[in-house]
């Protein structure tokens, strides 16, 4: 019973156009709740959640970013250090899907090279308003060699699965380490410095 | 695998003398006595330790005798006494083996010494080993002992005991090297020279010592830890005894490994060279070679730490291996007398010399460790009764289903975060949510065997008439009364009785041995039904001696604690002081056991567990409480009448418990069997010896805890081996069993709630406003927008932080005040965003290269980031616009579309007026003309012109008039207009005398012709402005009688505005300033 509370810390990032439901996806995963009122995220928020995978306790620190275009240059600076990035679009919003390739380019430019990526087509409960067929999502994911899920934060479809899958993929790439390994920072707790550490 | 207990069995040391002194030391450290008390006796052989009444008189020492001295006169003759000196009587014919002093007023504890002239020595203590590093300041230079453990070296089928000692060498601060010293040791190793160096393994970069799990063998709780030692040259397998001791050792070794940091130099191990000779002469290995020394080594140098490398180091290791973790003495190891003790040691040896091992000794007591486990090969009648052979038992143990995982990790795991502690404490709090009570049957038995070997089948005691219990707790006392058992903590009886018990366990079930623990004659065995083995964890065993001098193991207790499912259980077997009148001693023994029995916890940061900190305590043993106040015949008569109730009243245990002197909170079942002591061996007859002891219920079983039901409590008259009868009790004990699903659920809830807590502890604030619009921003006109930060429940530090690749957190024209701060929970702070466009930022805003647009990042330390958007519109102004742009602006600047301004502002400055551009221009900016003309009209005689400041409000008015072309409405003081003119010149992005001409001007300063030449090279508009201004200034000077201006004043004011250093606003050198003034002055006094 005397196990460590968590062995690893994974930093995940949610990106995608404004209004696709990134915050709701995170809220569903972290608090298992959903809020219909839309409050645009103006800034960077994060939550933690501890999960157990393959007998390892993993602390996920999930960063939610502002999706509005005017913040893009700033938000890309948060990509660095993320081990996994969830790129979210809205299946009822064609524009958000078209922007996927732009977001992917952003990842290429700003994220760590070995970052684990995942594509989510959110709001899949709203099938009557769907404008992006599932196949298109699958296709672009296939082209880029990344995983794809259609999710619904509202109906709680695939949310947990998506996060766990992403964490598992990261875990698979993480070399087996002794608990005391220093490669993984387990001491920082909720410590977040943004890019502050770089400059001052 | 059952080598597990070889640490108890293996003949490791323990000279009575050493122990006595050590115990004495330890005790006195605990309770310093004003008067020294020492044992004082002469005794021979077993008499010395069997019963206190035969020896061990206590004597009060004379005032000047501060030391206790113990002397071994011959191998069987011992003497103890008070002594005035610590050094012993060196030079006398006998060997003063050990001495100790302990109390004031003598100068510090005088070490004991039976060891050597070397720096190290046998130090002692009961129990296990831990070494204190701080006493390592000893010689030789920086050579220290860290840890040692006794283990079994496995090579193929061979098993040999080795002492493993981790030795650290620290030649200087910050540098250290380690080596693992492996020692052979003589079976009943007592002193350092019973130990010989086998080999040294340097802890180099390729050194690893890791726990391994042999294929096909399942991990058994409490079983040996198998470790593999690997270096480039070596591959050795050791089995180390289970427990915290080994754990510590492995951790120490792991810490000693140099790692792969390339910064640290490779260890060189030069210090090991002095031991090389022993390595080079493997043929001389062994304690018996050349009387245990290697002359060629001993004579190498004074600083050698050892006789033959093995001697004193080995001795230290012996001590290390057995040293107690609870009581330790900080002996100084000086003045040691190695030679003498070595001599004593050699006297002790078999005179025949060459014998390789003690199994050849005539008394046959010293079986080799490995051989002792093959007892069933001997033609022993024991084997015929059994229905299970030893090997079967072992197999069962092997096949039990405990997995390796957890314990193995614990070995290397040290970090326990706060979160972990919280999870654990929550789990304890919510235990009821995920556990249910399930009854398990416990068999508890106690048997004082009076030093006998098993001669009868134990089944009547252990398994007749009962269902197969889930757990067996079987305790023995007086297992072995021989000298060896006492001195050397080694007895073949352990194996014999272990086997006898194992063979007589209930035939309907298979059992796995969990643990065996023994202190001299007190042994406790714990078995579990094989199917429950997986639910036993955290097994620890400890011993407490309360015998001779309050510490020796002839009396005392042993205990095993473990976790069964989720219930913690402690089983104690004790043998308390004898004799009817000694009940107070028994009470004290009980209390000592309770207070001194301490179990290490898995988490080393937690304090050790005591007996009382367990859910269930089962206490068995020969408690030795007697029936008093009745004469023997009366007792026997009452027994015959089965009038046990009458007898209870006289039972000391009952009366002492009733008086709450002992066993508080414990319960004992009703005694429905006749006293179990004392019988003539082999019969059911009461003691017919001379002493004719009165019968007594010596052997008892008590319990404490919830959900315990005693099903039976009885003696077993059928067994006649001993002068005691065995007692047994069967319990149903309600154990907290984990419902895995509920446990997972509870754990999940706890983790969720901790996550929630952690999320709630992320600093978070609310902002009254996030979007800021600054409307109609004008040149040099401050605009302020404010907002409040309202903090949540977590104290937090906030700060506006720089965006990537930017040098400040916002644009130059903006400022947040304050830009950082600290907020208490629920507190509020007002932040003002101040927007101010000055000469540095105006031009780009005019041109549209910059906009009133910015995003500020408000960062909370350890928390979120908030983006604040700033936007607005800037009203272009003539201030900050280039001269040539203004010359093309025929309309007021604010009447023009932004695009036109932008184009004109970005238009390159032409040095040659080639006329290809717009023809439609003015010679000088109309705004300049307006201001100068105003001054010419109104201020030509104004005193202090350019020297008295204007009014801010009037400046804004002037600016607006200029920018909107409404100068006819201009009404402002002369000073304000004058200042506006200066500001206008100052805010020109390119000064009137272009940057490129700056150095030329300074050079020609003083040469008017050359100066005029430089001016003529200026772009037309600039030249026009310069000429115009000079003309105006000359006009002013004409009125100097009225306005008191002179050339110097004007030159100094305008010099720095018209001539600006291209390097920016660095502080100008006075010489440079002077030259600039002089340059202007020329034009003030000369007409062109």
UniProtKB/TrEMBL annotation, chain B:
UniProt topology in membrane: Peripheral membrane protein
Subcellular location: Cytoplasm, Cytosol; Cytoplasmic vesicle, Phagosome membrane; Early endosome membrane; Endoplasmic reticulum-Golgi intermediate compartment
Region (Disordered): 282-315, 342-390
GO MF assignments: inositol-1,4,5-trisphosphate 5-phosphatase activity; metal ion binding; phosphatidylinositol-4,5-bisphosphate 5-phosphatase activity
EC number(s) per entry: 3.1.3.36
Cellular component terms per the entry's GO annotation: cytosol; early endosome membrane; endoplasmic reticulum-Golgi intermediate compartment; phagocytic vesicle membrane
Name of the top EC class for this enzyme: hydrolase
Keywords: Cytoplasm, Cytoplasmic vesicle, Endosome, Hydrolase, Lipid metabolism, Lipoprotein, Magnesium, Membrane, Metal-binding, Methylation, Prenylation, Signal
GO biological process, alphabetically ordered: phosphatidylinositol dephosphorylation; signal transduction
Catalytic activity: a 1,2-diacyl-sn-glycero-3-phospho-(1D-myo-inositol-4,5-bisphosphate) + H2O = a 1,2-diacyl-sn-glycero-3-phospho-(1D-myo-inositol 4-phosphate) + phosphate
Cited InterPro entries: Endo/exonu/phosph_ase_sf, Ig-like_fold, INPP5B_PH_dom, IP5, IPPc, OCRL-1_2_ASH, OCRL1/INPP5B_INPP5c, Rho_GTPase_activation_prot
Polar residues bias (residue ranges): 282-292
Leader sequence residues: 1-28
Superkingdom of source: Eukaryota
The keyword Lipid metabolism belongs to this UniProt entry's keyword annotation: yes
Domain Rho-GAP: 916-1088
Keyword DNA-binding: no
TM region positions: none
Similarity comment: family membership: Belongs to the inositol 1,4,5-trisphosphate 5-phosphatase type II family.
Known role: Hydrolyzes phosphatidylinositol 4,5-bisphosphate (PtIns(4,5)P2) and the signaling molecule phosphatidylinositol 1,4,5-trisphosphate (PtIns(1,4,5)P3), and thereby modulates cellular signaling events.
Protein name as annotated: Type II inositol 1,4,5-trisphosphate 5-phosphatase
Organism listed in the record: Rousettus aegyptiacus
Upper classification of the organism: Eukaryota, Metazoa, Chordata, Craniata, Vertebrata
């Amino acid at each position: 019973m005397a196990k460590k509370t968590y062995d690893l810390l994974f930093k995940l990032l949610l990106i995608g156009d404004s209004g696709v439901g990134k915050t709701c996806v995170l809220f569903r995963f972290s608090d298992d709740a959903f809020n219909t009122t839309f409050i645009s995220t103006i800034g960077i928020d994060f939550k933690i959640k501890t999960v157990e995978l393959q007998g390892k306790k993993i602390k996920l620190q999930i960063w939610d970013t502002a999706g509005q275009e005017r913040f893009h240059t700033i938000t890309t600076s948060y990509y660095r250090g993320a081990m996994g990035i969830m790129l979210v679009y809205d299946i009822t919003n064609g524009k958000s899907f078209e922007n996927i390739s732009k977001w992917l380019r952003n990842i290429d430019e700003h994220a760590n090279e070995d970052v684990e990526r995942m594509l989510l087509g959110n709001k899949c409960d709203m099938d009557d308003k769907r404008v992006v067929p599932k196949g298109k999502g699958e296709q672009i994911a296939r082209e880029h060699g990344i995983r794809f899920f259609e999710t619904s934060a509202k109906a709680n479809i695939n949310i947990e699965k998506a996060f766990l899958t992403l964490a598992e993929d990261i875990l698979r790439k993480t070399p087996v380490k002794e608990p005391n390994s220093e490669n993984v920072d387990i001491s920082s707790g909720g410590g977040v410095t943004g890019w502050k550490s770089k400059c001052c | 695998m059952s080598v597990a207990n070889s640490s108890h069995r293996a003949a490791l040391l323990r000279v009575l003398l050493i122990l006595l002194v050590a115990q004495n030391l330890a005790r006195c450290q605990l309770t310093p006595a004003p008067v020294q008390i020492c044992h004082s006796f002469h005794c021979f052989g077993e008499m010395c330790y069997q019963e206190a009444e035969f020896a061990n008189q206590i004597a009060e020492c004379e005032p000047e005798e501060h030391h206790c001295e113990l002397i071994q006169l011959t191998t069987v003759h011992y003497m103890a006494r008070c002594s005035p000196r610590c050094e012993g009587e060196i030079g006398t014919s006998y060997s003063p083996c050990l001495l100790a002093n302990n109390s004031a007023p003598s100068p510090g504890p005088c070490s004991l010494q039976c060891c050597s002239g070397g720096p190290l020595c046998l130090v002692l203590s009961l129990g296990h080993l831990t070494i204190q590093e701080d006493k390592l300041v000893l010689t030789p230079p920086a050579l220290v002992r860290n840890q040692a453990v006794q283990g079994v070296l496995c090579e193929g089928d061979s098993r040999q005991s080795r002492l493993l000692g981790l030795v650290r060498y620290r030649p200087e601060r910050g540098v250290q090297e380690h080596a693992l010293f492996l020692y052979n040791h003589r079976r009943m190793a007592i002193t350092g020279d019973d130990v010989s160096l086998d080999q040294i393994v340097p802890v180099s970069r390729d050194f690893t010592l890791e726990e391994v799990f042999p294929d096909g063998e399942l991990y058994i709780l409490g079983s040996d830890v198998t470790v593999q030692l690997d270096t480039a040259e070596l591959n050795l397998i050791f089995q180390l005894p289970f427990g915290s001791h080994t754990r510590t050792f492995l951790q120490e070794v792991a810490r000693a490994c140099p790692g792969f940091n390339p910064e640290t130099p490779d260890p060189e191990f030069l210090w090991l060279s002095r031991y090389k000779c022993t390595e080079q002469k493997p043929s001389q290995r062994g304690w018996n070679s050349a009387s245990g020394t290697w002359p060629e080594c001993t004579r190498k140098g004074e600083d050698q730490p050892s006789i033959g490398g093995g001697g004193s180091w080995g001795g230290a290791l012996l001590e290390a291996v057995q040293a107690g973790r609870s009581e330790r003495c900080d002996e100084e190891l000086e003045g040691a007398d190695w030679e003498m003790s070595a001599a004593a040691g050699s006297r002790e040896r078999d005179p025949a010399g060459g014998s390789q091992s003690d199994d050849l000794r005539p008394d046959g007591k010293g079986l080799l460790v490995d051989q002792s486990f093959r007892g069933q090969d001997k033609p022993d009648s024991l084997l015929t009764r059994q229905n299970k052979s030893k090997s079967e038992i072992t197999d069962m143990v092997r096949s039990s289903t405990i997995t390796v995982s957890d314990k193995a990790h614990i070995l290397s795991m040290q970090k326990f975060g706060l979160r972990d502690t919280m999870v654990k404490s929550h789990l304890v709090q919510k235990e009821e949510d995920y556990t249910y009570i399930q009854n398990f049957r416990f068999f508890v038995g106690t048997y004082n065997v009076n030093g006998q070997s098993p001669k009868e089948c134990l089944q009547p005691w252990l398994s007749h008439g009962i269902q197969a219990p889930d757990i067996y707790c079987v305790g023995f006392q007086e297992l072995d009364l021989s000298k060896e058992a006492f001195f050397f903590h080694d007895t073949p009886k352990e194996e014999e009785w272990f086997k006898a018990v194992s063979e007589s366990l209930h035939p309907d079930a298979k059992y796995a041995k969990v643990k065996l623990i023994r202190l001299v004659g007190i042994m406790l065995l714990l078995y579990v039904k094989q199917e429950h083995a997986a639910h036993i964890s955290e097994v620890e065993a400890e011993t407490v001696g309360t015998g001779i001098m309050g510490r020796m193991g002839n009396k005392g207790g042993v205990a095993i604690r473990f976790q069964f499912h989720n219930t913690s259980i402690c089983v104690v077997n004790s043998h308390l002081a004898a004799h009817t009148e000694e009940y107070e001693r028994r009470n004290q023994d009980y209390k000592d056991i309770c207070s001194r029995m301490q179990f290490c916890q898995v988490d080393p940061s937690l304090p050790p567990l005591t007996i009382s900190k367990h859910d269930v305590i089962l206490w068995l043993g020969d408690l030795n409480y007697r029936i008093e106040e009745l004469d023997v015949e009366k007792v026997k008569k009452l027994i015959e009448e089965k009038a046990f109730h009458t007898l209870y009243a006289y039972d000391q245990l009952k009366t002492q418990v009733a008086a709450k002197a002992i066993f508080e909170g414990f319960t004992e079942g009703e005694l429905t069997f006749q006293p179990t002591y004392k019988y003539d061996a082999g019969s059911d007859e009461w003691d017919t010896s001379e002493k004719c002891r009165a019968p007594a219920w010596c052997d008892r079983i008590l319990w404490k805890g919830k959900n315990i039901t005693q099903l039976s409590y009885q003696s077993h008259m059928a067994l006649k081996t001993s002068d005691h009868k065995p007692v047994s009790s069967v319990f149903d004990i309600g154990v907290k069993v984990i419902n895995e699903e509920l446990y997972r659920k509870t754990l999940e809830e706890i983790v969720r709630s901790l996550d929630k807590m952690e999320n709630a502890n992320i600093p978070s604030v609310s902002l009254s406003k996030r979007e800021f619009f600054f409307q109609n921003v004008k040149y040099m006109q401050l605009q302020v927008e404010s907002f409040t930060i309202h903090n949540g429940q977590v104290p937090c530090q906030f700060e506006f932080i720089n965006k990537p690749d930017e040098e400040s957190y916002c644009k130059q024209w903006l400022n947040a005040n304050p830009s950082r701060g600290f907020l208490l929970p629920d507190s509020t702070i007002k932040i003002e965003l101040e927007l101010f466009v000055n000469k540095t930022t105006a031009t780009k805003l005019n041109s549209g290269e910059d906009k009133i647009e910015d995003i500020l990042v408000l960062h909370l330390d350890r928390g979120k980031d908030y983006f604040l958007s700033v936007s607005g519109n800037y009203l272009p102004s003539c201030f900050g616009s280039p001269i040539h742009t203004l010359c093309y602006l025929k309309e007021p600047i604010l009447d023009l579309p932004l695009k036109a301004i932008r184009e004109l502002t970005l238009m390159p400055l032409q040095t040659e007026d080639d006329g290809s551009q717009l023809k439609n221009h003015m010679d000088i900016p109309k705004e300049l003309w307006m201001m100068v003309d105003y001054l010419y009209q109104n201020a030509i005689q104004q005193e202090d012109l350019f020297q008295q400041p204007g009014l801010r409000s009037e400046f804004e008015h002037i600016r607006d008039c200029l920018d909107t072309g409404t100068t006819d409405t201009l009404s402002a003081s002369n000073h304000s207009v004058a200042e506006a003119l200066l500001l206008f010149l100052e805010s020109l992005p390119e000064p009137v005398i272009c940057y490129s001409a700056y150095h030329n001007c300074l050079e020609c300063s003083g040469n008017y012709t050359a100066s005029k030449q430089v001016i003529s090279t200026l772009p037309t508009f600039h030249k026009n402005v310069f000429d115009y201004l000079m003309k105006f200034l000359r006009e002013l000077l004409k009125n100097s009688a009225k306005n008191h201006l002179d050339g110097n004043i004007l030159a100094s004011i305008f010099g720095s505005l018209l001539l600006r250093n291209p390097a920016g606003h660095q502080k100008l050198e006075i010489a440079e300033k002077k030259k600039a003034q002089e340059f202007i002055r020329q034009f003030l006094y000369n007409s062109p």
